[in-house]
Design goal:
heterodimer, A: about 375 residues, mainly alpha, MetI-like fold, 2 domains, two-stranded antiparallel ribbon, 19 helices, elongated, B: about 350 residues, alpha/beta, nine-stranded mixed β-sheet, 9 strands
Amino acid sequence: MNDRRTAFVLITPLMAALALAFLLPLGLTLWRAVANPEFRDAMPRAAHLLRAWDGTGLPPEPVFAALATELPGAQAAQTLGAVTRRLNEERSGMRSLLLATARAAPGMEAPYAAGFATLDPAWADPATWRFLRRAASPMTAAWLLRAVDLAQDDAGRVIAAEALFRPMLLRTLSIAATVTLICLLLGYPLAWHLTRMRPEHARIVRALILVPFWSSILVRSAAWIALLQRDGAVNAALVGSGLLDAPAQLLFTRGAVLLAMVQVLLPFMVLPLAAVMGRIEPRLMLAATGLGAGPVALFLRVFLPLSLPGVAAGCAIVFTVAAGFYVTPALIGGARDQMVGSFVVFFTNQTINWGMAAALSALLLALVGLVALLSRNALRRIAA
Amino acid sequence: MRLLLVLLLTLPCLARAQSELTVVGFGGGFQDAARRALFEPWSRATGIPVRDDSYNGEMARIYAMTRTRDVVWDVVMVEAPELARGCEDGIFQRMDWSVVDRTKFAPSTTSECGAGAVSWGAALFWDTTRTARAPKGFAELWDTERFPGKRALRWGAKMTLEVALLADGVPRDQVYAVLATREGQDRAFRKLDAIRDDLVFWRSGAQPMQLVNGGEATYALGYTGRVVQANAQAPGRYAMDWGTLLWSVDSWAVVAGSPHAAEGFRFIQGITELEPLKRLAAIWPASPAHRAFAEDAAIRAANPDAVASHAAQGLFLDTRFWVEKGEDLEKRFAAWAQR
């Protein structure tokens, strides 16, 4: 009992760090994907009245009055920008409508409903108000829907939008899976060889495997550009040796992306594999040979099953990291090789649409989790 | 544990209990030159220490700073759309025009929250040792028979759609009016479709020169400053068509909630005066947003490679347009690219 308490005390800092550094940001990200605070924070009274309205026809006069006072207020407080961009993203024209109304509202008098309608006929359209009512709700499905190329129409029904993120997500997963497979095919023999070397040699090879980590990913990608371009070393070698008549298009291809990603990610496959293989009891092999197993049977029935935990760990790490790549495909991939991470960065840093960035991240996380879960189950079935 | 937490939370505050001004720009050779010509002389004259740092233009950091009220950057250099968005969102302070003299800036280089720092531009260039064929403007760039080879454009809708419409014969002053309509956007994408297989796209400013040097692209849209720099090392090697100039202006802005906002405005006023800017232009091919660089014939003659000297024949990238339509068009561009 006392031991347990000591153990608990000892792991408390770790658990706290885990919660702070991992679970909290993850939770906040997931929350941001559905949070809808812009309208409510900037114009709380109008939002409250809109939510209280039943949504038929035009809203009552107090809603107009609340907007007439809160729109100019929000503009003065520099909070209107976020609202207009948030609403414009879902329904184009909202930005200019709200900005024009914010400018005109201080000069209006009651009844505001009439003044609004004269300013812009959009204010006499019930669809505008139904949309605003939805925008004033505390949560939104807009970003998650958009992440799978769906949208909501005026009545709130789900409709199809232009195909963008669905193909991109599928491509991201397919690139990640291909990279994982290549890493496994290259890394397995390498890891096996590593466990059979003399320890002092193994140390050197291990260091060589880790070399790619010493430079930044940007530098490594730039190096690949220098190697693969039309006047690069690879083309020069191919043409010089007579294998090719003219330089080939190597840069900006899917092959270049896979090559560079495998180079970066191979250590993530080799290290867990080597760790697991190094722990396989050599006497088991001897016993199997003694019982008459040939080299193929020895590998298939003894070594391979015992190394599967390493395969699972290596594949999980490589797949997860590969699915989040975007710099390498952006620099050396073609127009059709872009991965979803590039849009997460675009929404985070350029348009400051953190809801959309969070929705894409959440979707990617869910898909990667699903793939990991499915492959773990498949692996278990093979092992059994 | 609690003690540790308290320590962790207070440490950053303790570390910056100092009175120096933190200025953040995009780094590189420009910032080294600016430090020598602008920051250090101002610091010596006023006695206010200035520390400069660099970033990649990622706005998320500034948003996070202002939201957590832990503002460690005082003055930042920002691109025009980020400035406009940030100003609407209140992450930048409104410029104090009683401290900063607005009249000295060139037209369209000041706004509610920003004072123009330097203009930058992109134009079509190629390597004269590789090709003697020079397309005249974007219209001829689309003639892949007469001008074979890949064309490198910037990845994304911004700049690329303008180039497509200019190539399709839309006059400069009507580009954004056309691009604002769905038909105009369709027209731009159709134009890109026409030479789709001959286009490659770059992401970072260093890439266009790399692509042209490596033979990967024959013609490229690249940042003029970098082409001028490359020509300084290999005189006359790269030809650039100033008639294809697309340009914009980077600005100085003061981060909202900065504890040194007053000094920040004084700093901006000080480093946008003509004399320090002339010193800057003497050591770096920058194009300051000062009126004199656009209007004074002697200064223009002394800076033949400055964007300001060619701005009249270029297309000014419309900040309002890209703030309003940027997200939509960038998504449409990505959807077009992956088809």
